[in-house]
Amino acid sequence: MSFLAYIPAALTCVSVAFYIANLVALRSWRRQRVPAAAEFPVSVLKPLKGCDPEMYEAFRSHCLQEYGAPYEIIFGINDAQDEAIPFVRRLQAEFPQRAISLVTCSEVLGANRKVSNLAQMATHAQYAHVLVNDSDITVPADYLSRVMRWFADETIGMVTCLYRARPAKGIWSRIESLGVLLDFMPGALTARIVEGRVRFGLGSTMAVSRAALEKIGGFETLVHYLADDYELANAIVKGGYQVVVPESVVETHVHDYNFREFWHHQLRWGRTVRSSRFGGYFGLVVTFGLFWAVVLAILSAGSTIALAALGVVLALRWILMVAYASALGDQYAGKNWWLVPLRDLISPIVWLCSIGGSRIIWRGEEFRLRGGKLQKI
Predict the structure, then answer these.
(1) Strand partners, 253
(2) What is the rounded CA–CA span in Å between residue 101 and residue 122?
(3) What is the rounded distance in angstroms from the CA atom of residue 204 to the CA atom of residue 164?
(4) At a CB cut-off of 8 Å and minimum separation 6, what does 147 contact?
(5) Assigned CATH topology for domain 36-152+199-244
(6) Rounded Cα–Cα distance for residues 82 and 85 (Å)
(7) What is the pLDDT of residues 177-236, one digit of tens each?
């Protein structure tokens, strides 16, 4: 084996160790101690802009909660002609017994319109806890029960949920959903173990106590950040509170991307991570096990050891897929197992292209990222 081959060999070994750590992290999450049942009144805030796949069914799932405490659902828009409005009106008609309101957020407080809306919506919330999730999030009937009971411990400032991604039929949608299952969720749970606590939030669920939110200055402090979920969790931890990841899993829908849309979305994600967590971004090199195993096989002219390493990496990736799909209730990954190698070879290309540049496209608008903050172009 040539001297150059030792570099990908070492990185392949580190990647294998990382994948094993992903499995350990999953086991730790599943075995965490769950608090006793407790219910607290909560205001559910859902900022809207346009329509998402299966959006109305996602809305309905929030009205079908098996939850004894009072809760309200507040939708927020900043355009009085937004195409999501008829869906909110339909929901109000179908569930007249639920406290459902629609707030027009006329002010633009920062480049992140979602957080700008949240800051204005929060002034209409009547309860001591608020829960934010994206418009396309579908939740199980026991969602509020499983999330809110953690707040019985007053040191808990935020609860955030893992999610599975339901793909559309297109290949790029399916590859992105595999990325959520194989990279994003394992990375989040492994960070939970490595850092000894949770310092991240996921837009799938950000439930916070008003006390913690007020201590960090409210949503207003986040209106210029793209990764508002991460920034919110990080600020709450710095404020002396804990963030937890409950056993409840929600579902999002992945758009039926063409390649260009898929690429822009991946590039935005990569540059967001680089801008928000520089060290974590460069640490991603240890997650590209298949890439390093392929490089090793090429540099070693297909040696037996290199081919064995390639087989081990592929086996571990499929084991990870099965384990996480089972834990998160993902019924879609099994049909897309053959796309795992393609996904794993695309990831390092996205990473490499994300090293330079700061331009991103978000909801049809162009921005530059500076220190995690958005600057309109």
Answers:
(1) 166
(2) 12
(3) 10
(4) 131, 159, 161, 205, 207, 246, 248
(5) Spore Coat Polysaccharide Biosynthesis Protein SpsA; Chain A (3.90.550)
(6) 6
(7) 999 999 999 999 999 999 999 999 999 999 999 999 999 999 999 999 999 999 999 999
Residue 247 CA to residue 30 CA, distance in Å, equals 7
Report the C-alpha gap between 146 and 136 in whole angstroms.
Answer: 20
The verdict on pTM exceeding 0.90 is yes
Q: Nearest 5°: CA angle at 324, between 160 and 158? A: 10
Amino acid, res. 36: A
Question: Positive or negative, the Cα torsion across 284, 289, 291, 297?
Answer: positive
Residue 244, strand partner residues: 159
Is residue 309 pLDDT above 70, yes or no?
Answer: yes
**Residue ranges in 277-303 assigned as alpha helix (H):** 278-283, 289-299
Q: Structural domain boundaries of the chain? A: 3-27+260-372, 36-152+199-244
- Paired strand residues for 102: 75
Tokens of 115: 């957080």
CB distance 206 to 246 below 8 Å: no
Phi, psi of 139, deg, nearest 5: -125, 150
Mean pLDDT of 15-31: 98
Inter-CA distances, 59 with 52, 89, 207, 313, Å: 11, 11, 17, 40
2 versus 310: the higher-pLDDT residue is 310
83 within 8 A of 51, measured Cβ to Cβ: yes
Question: Residue 32, class by beta-carbon neighbours within 10 Å (0-12 exposed, 13-18 middle, 19+ buried)?
Answer: exposed
Return d(Cα 296, Cα 298) in angstroms, integer: 5
DSSP state of 184: I
